[in-house]
Amino acid sequence: MRYEIRQLGPWIGAVTNPRKTGSQFRASWEATLKLLRYEAELLDATNLVVQVDADPNDIRADGMLRARARVGFPGVKVSLDSRHGPLTYATDAYEHWQANVRAVALSMAALRAVDRYGVSTKGEQYRGWAAIDSPDQKRRDAQNLIAGYGGLAEALKATHPDLGGDPEAFHAVQEARRVLGL
How many angstroms separate the CA atoms of 126 and 87, rounded? Predict the structure, then answer.
């Protein structure tokens, strides 16, 4: 399983203060990546992405960090597409970004352990980790959708099923209207 590193956007949510040292993790970076890949493979994952606060120039063309890259904010997001849908795990609980990746990998192992007794046969334990757009992102997406049609009236007319429009597109416009409070 291959992973790639991408730049971390703005941190959404509270910033942990104070952070833990991460000294409880005695594993090497290679061992952390091995565990992360293993857990991702057990979820039939694709597109394993680790987002860190690195300068885009410090991310190589192959999606890895340059050897001398500096990471600012220690928070990380780990995202993957799994058989349970897209999942995103984020934490800034530790002082170093590698320790935060380790915490995510160990959390993934703990979630998988829930299946041990056959209680969660449908991946229920992963539903809370499904990738969720922020309210700001939902508003931007809704604005862009409606603007793409030239305005709300045009969007409703172009997508209305009674006027030959696509019912799914009409539903998306209705949802955008709800998000924007129009």
Answer: 8
Alpha helices in 9-130 (DSSP H): 29-42, 97-113
Residue 120 shares a structural domain with residue 156: no
Per-residue pLDDT of the chain (182 residues; tens, 9 = 90+): 888 999 998 888 789 999 999 888 889 999 999 999 999 999 999 889 999 999 999 999 888 899 899 999 999 999 999 988 888 999 999 999 999 999 999 999 998 888 777 776 667 677 665 555 556 667 777 888 888 888 899 999 999 999 998 888 898 899 889 888 88
- Count of the separate structural domains present in the chain: 2
Q: Are 125 and 140 members of one domain?
A: no
Domain that holds residue 158: 135-180
Q: Residue 138 is encoded by which pair of tokens?
A: 């939902």
Residue type, 144: N
